[in-house]
Write a structure and sequence with these properties.
Helix content: 25-40%
Distance between the termini: 165 Å
Number of strands: 13
CATH superfamily of the largest domain: Ribonuclease H-like superfamily/Ribonuclease H
Strand order of the largest sheet: 3-2-1-4-5
Strand content: 5-15%
CATH class of the largest domain: Alpha Beta
Structural class: alpha+beta
Number of helices: 20
Length: about 575
């Protein structure tokens, strides 16, 4: 605007007019004046002034509608004043109802109730302009103050529908978040039906007796000698935990359904045991039991060592003879692995009282004790043999080969040692098997060289050649061609020569002595055992009688003769 008294020539140039206008309404008037008065097009005027064409179109339309009032801008209104009154009141009411509510949660409540989400700044400004007055009454009383279960659960659902989160609902109703979570979970799954109280009893009570357990008991019950405690111990190793009484009921059920036989109960009166042990390896008991089998018309014996304290089987093996060498092989195995006991208890069998056995007991520092004559109940191993009869005799009778019989025996030893034993039921849960009671405690240990010195008259070490033979006292004897270069043990006593590899017999021969009682006069084959160590290469042809010599007599050492030189050293001096 020119100063007072100053005169300026009129102009229609926008670049001059732009510097003269002072108000926004005046500037808008000058922009649209040629369009309104002289009929210029908004596009032409936009090109002259540099303004946007759309802006000119809108301003012309507003002038045609409002006239000169269109040049006056509308009054400025604060942004939060545009929030509807009912939403403003809802923000104030919800804050008054539960003051710990945060801005974000109030914003969510507005969205859930009115589909309008005000900004955090708007909510803060509303609360600052009209601070909520203290609460005088509650919409919902505390959760546990409402007597009707459906009413208090419905209060949780209503607050959740309004946008309250679980933590705020729990604080407002004075209950736990778990209660709120479970109520909403039931509402989602069941609807209105989930608001009422329900019984906490399971619809289908949990049971340990499953079809799998019953089927497993039936498979074990094929051995009719197993009772409820042995079934309980076998299931426990398989991960099925049933009490002996429950196992007895399942056994009775299977007998009714499938007509299975029932084991006969043998009554007996318990008597005090004279060789009851108070510590591990105080007493070992050894005995030999005949095994019923179906491999032929020959006898097979189980030679077993038992620790009286833990009831653990220290060592056990099957043999076709019950001579001293067979017993010493099992005894050597037990001493080598567990050390020597303080005392050994046996019956009055000649095998256990032999002079060679007495010498070995004395060398190992073992006291030899015997049970009373015709008093087998004094031997702890009789109870173990009773367990073997119930657990393994059924499988022994069905074995069709020697390796299968050995596998059944080894399985029985493992099951017996690692299943719960009736004598240890008073112990903690993890100490009820013989192996757990024995643990890693050993008796009097001996070095391998010391054991070899003690057993030197009956046990010898040899190495097999490429053909599976070994040399022993000027004889070449066959053991197993599938073990070339492997060390084997030779047990010799009372005319029996037994070849053993890793505590498993390979072959047995009968030997006779020369008059010096050391050198062997004859060695004849008695039997060869079936073992898993056989060579995978079968023979190229079937050998006939006399074609395969398993025992060869080596020539005697020839007398040494003095070698006579062809040239004689002449005398150096005459």
């Amino acid at each position: 605007m020119p100063a007072r008294g100053e005169r300026i020539e009129p102009t229609h140039g926008w670049h001059q007019l732009e510097f003269r206008v002072r108000f926004g309404g005046q500037r808008t008037y000058e922009l649209i004046r040629p369009v309104v008065l002289f009929g210029h097009s908004p596009a032409e005027r936009a090109a002259e002034t540099g303004a946007a064409a759309r802006t000119l179109y809108r301003q012309v339309a507003r002038f045609e509608q409002l006239g000169m009032a269109s040049f006056v801008p509308p009054p400025k209104v604060e942004k939060h004043r545009t929030v509807p009154a009912h939403i403003r009141q809802a923000i104030i009411d919800v804050k008054r109802e539960h003051p710990p509510l945060g801005v974000n949660e109030i914003r969510t409540i507005c969205w859930a109730r009115f589909a309008h989400r005000p900004s955090n700044a708007t909510i803060k400004r509303v609360l600052a302009e009209e601070p909520p007055t203290p609460r005088t009454h509650r919409r919902f009383p505390p959760f546990h103050s409402m007597a009707d279960p459906a009413t208090r659960r419905l209060a949780i659902v209503r607050l959740h529908i309004e946008g309250w989160n679980k933590q705020s609902i729990a604080q407002y109703l004075e209950t736990s978040r778990v209660t709120v979570h479970e109520t909403l979970k039931r509402w989602i799954a069941e609807g209105v039906a989930g608001l009422e109280d329900k019984s906490t009893a399971p619809h289908r009570p949990a049971t340990k007796v499953t079809l799998r357990a019953i089927a497993t008991v039936k498979d074990l019950q094929e051995n009719p000698l197993l009772g409820q405690f042995r079934i309980h111990a076998a299931l426990k190793r398989l991960g099925i935990f049933l009490s002996p009484s429950t196992c007895g009921r399942i056994l009775a059920l299977n007998r009714r359904l499938y007509g299975l036989p029932k084991p006969e109960r043998v009554p007996h009166d318990p008597k005090p045991m004279p060789f009851a042990a108070g510590r591990r390896h105080q007493y070992w008991t050894a005995d030999i039991r005949y095994i019923d089998h179906g491999l032929g018309d020959f006898k097979i014996y189980a030679i077993t060592l038992l620790d009286n304290y833990s009831r653990a089987v220290i060592a056990s093996g099957l043999s076709r003879t019950q001579d001293l060498s067979a017993f010493l092989m099992v005894f050597y195995m037990g001493v080598q692995q567990h050390g020597a006991p303080e005392a050994l208890v046996t019956d009055n069998g000649s095998v256990f009282l032999a002079k060679e056995a007495q010498r070995i007991y004395k060398a190992l520092g073992i006291e030899k004790r015997e049970i009373g004559r015709r008093q087998p109940w004094q031997s702890y191993i009789e109870a173990a043999f009773g367990v073997q009869r119930r657990m393994a005799d059924w499988a022994f009778a069905r074995a069709t080969s020697w390796p299968e019989l050995l596998a059944v025996h080894d399985q029985w030893v493992a099951d017996y040692n690692y299943q719960d034993h009736f004598a240890h039921l008073h112990r903690p849960e993890d100490r009820r098997s013989p192996a757990a009671v024995l643990h890693t405690v050993c008796g009097r240990l001996y070095a391998p060289e010391e054991l070899h010195r003690i057993f030197y008259t009956t046990r010898f070490g040899r190495v097999l050649d490429q053909a599976g033979y070994l040399r022993f006292r000027r004889w070449r004897v066959y053991a197993e061609r599938g073990l070339p270069g492997q060390p084997v043990a030779v047990w010799l006593y009372a005319g029996h020569l037994t070849l053993v590899y890793q505590d498993e017999p390979l072959a047995q021969y009968r030997a006779t002595y020369q008059p010096d009682r050391r050198r062997l006069k004859t060695v004849t084959e008695e039997r060869r055992f079936e073992t898993p160590h056989r060579s995978p290469q079968p023979p190229l042809w079937a050998w006939g009688e006399g074609e395969w010599l398993r025992v060869l007599r080596l020539p005697e050492y020839a007398a040494r003769t003095r070698r006579r030189d062809a040239y004689v050293q002449a005398a150096l001096f005459s």
